[in-house]
Design a protein that fits this description.
24% strand; Peroxisomal Thiolase, Chain A, domain 1; binds oxa(dethia)-CoA
């Protein structure tokens, strides 16, 4: 048994193609002003037609491996968070294993929507701490734009594509992942829903496609807004209190990027100034599970997060799912 796990490399990948709010103005009845004021989003990225979720994940993973000074062949475990895998069978992580060429690795997916990266990290943490594997690649990757109904202005403006990854190893040092807390509420989990593609609607029929059941739907998004603020704040406090810290001890909060106003409300509730919150939503939008590792990688690479920094990851999303990870970098 090792004491804890540490992240020794991070990476992210965003497709080149930009879809701006002005581009969306030409597709649906919306405006840059409405989208930016209500969400904080100016633009998002869109994967090329020949780029799938595993391709985005591969690029992010290669960068994380490079930072960690590791080769693909060494990887023993890949846990991939995604709600948009290349296929439901085989798992997205298996496509990634083939494309990344990691023959030794055991690979599988975790489905926890926007909290997926924190859930996947918690799975890897268990295997590494109990000694089953010596290292893990935790990756979150999404091609959200292929799940969207571009006639539904209330949801198509929110989402984008991208991937983030982390190389995780066991450690007996004091630095590393201090705690992970994860939560679900399936009783109230249908507000972010992709009704088609599962056993409820298969075989896929003309009727299910005509009813647009294969698209992502947001129901009572307003209600989700309020629930998100509370769960975000609770998850942050749970993490710091569990470790005997206060929120003032945290150097950077790296939250899921669903809506800038949700994050601002969370920061206000916690009494944290926004310069201690890592934001990527303006340029990348909501990329479900991938927003947290992308924002983490951005802050590691631009030097905000340094050795010794106390970093708090937190997320909220469909399912319902929410959680936090406190990390001494
Ligand atoms: O990643 C985790 C899952 N994500 C969430 O849980 C998202 C949480 N919710 C939100 O972020 C916000 O609720 C939204 C950004 C989705 C919506 O913002 P809102 O301030 O809650 O707006 P609303 O849904 O209350 O809509 C206000 C108005 C409506 O018009 P009426 O009924 O007041 O006339 C909408 O029809 O804005 C209209 N509207 C739009 N107008 C222009 C909705 N979407 C658009 C649009 N452009 N794209």
């Amino acid at each position: 048994m090792s004491k804890r796990v540490a992240i020794v490399g991070t990476g992210s990948y965003l497709p080149e193609k930009i879809l701006s709010n002005f581009d969306l103005e030409k597709i649906v009845d919306t405006s840059d002003e409405w989208i930016y004021t209500r969400t904080g989003i100016r633009e998002r990225r869109v994967a090329r037609p020949d780029e799938n979720t595993s391709d985005l994940a591969r690029e992010a993973s290669l960068k994380a491996l490079e930072m960690a000074g590791m080769r693909q062949e060494q990887i023993e475990l890949i846990v991939m968070a995604t709600i948009t895998p290349d296929t439901h069978c085989p798992a997205g992580a298996n496509w990634l294993q083939a494309k990344l060429n990691c023959p030794r690795a055991v690979t599988f997916d975790v489905t926890a929507a926007c909290t997926g990266f924190i859930f996947a990290l918690s799975v890897a943490e268990q295997y590494l701490k109990n000694g089953t594997f010596k290292n893990a690649l935790v990756v979150a990757s999404e091609v959200m734009t292929r799940t969207l109904d571009y006639t539904d202005r209330s949801s198509c403006i929110l989402w984008g594509d991208g991937a983030g990854a982390a190389v995780v190893v066991p450690t007996d040092e004091d630095n590393g992942v201090l705690s992970i807390h994860i939560h679900t509420d399936g009783l109230n989990g249908q507000n972010l829903l992709m009704p088609g593609g599962g056993s409820m609607t298969t075989p896929i029929s003309h009727e299910s496609v005509d009813k647009k059941l294969h698209y992502l739907r947001m129901i009572e998004a307003n209600r989700s807004f309020k629930v998100a603020v509370n769960h975000f704040a609770d998850a942050c406090l749970e993490a710091v209190h569990y470790n005997g810290y206060s929120i003032a001890d945290v150097d950077y909060i790296v939250p899921h990027q669903a809506n800038a106003r949700i994050i601002q409300a969370m920061a206000k509730k916690l009494g944290v100034s926004m310069d201690r919150v890592v934001m990527t939503i303006e340029r990348y939008g909501n990329i479900s599970s991938a927003t947290v590792p992308i924002a983490l990688d951005v802050a590691v690479r631009d030097g905000r997060i340094q050795k010794g920094s106390l970093v708090l990851l937190t997320a909220f999303g469909g399912g319902l799912t929410w959680g936090s990870a406190l990390i001494r970098w």
